[in-house]
Amino acid sequence: MLLAYDAVEAMINGGYPMQIAGSEALLRKLPKGNWIGGSTEYFMTDEGGRISDEYMFVTEFPYNFTIQSYGIGDIDIVAVDAYDNGFSVLIIPFEAPYIEYTPKTLRTSTACS
Fold this sequence. Notes:
Helix content is 28%, strand content 24%. By secondary structure, the chain is α+β, with helices and mostly antiparallel strands.
């Protein structure tokens, strides 16, 4: 759902676990909480595409989740830390380190033999 800053801030302060997409400026202003986010100003709504630096797209998770941070040296253990009955959401910066993650992960993965 597409929401204004005040509504998103209230949800974070209410402890709602969620995923948030919005402009970098808006995301930086948000309080710490049980959320993860990525920066964009381009959204798909029921009315079609929309560009906004005033609203954020929020997806509530109806269950608890944990937020983990991984570096280049330990990105290959993401699957080890995953829930047995759930899924993982990865946010990887679109920078040079991304290139370093992929080959290491592919070499250490046994899922696609």
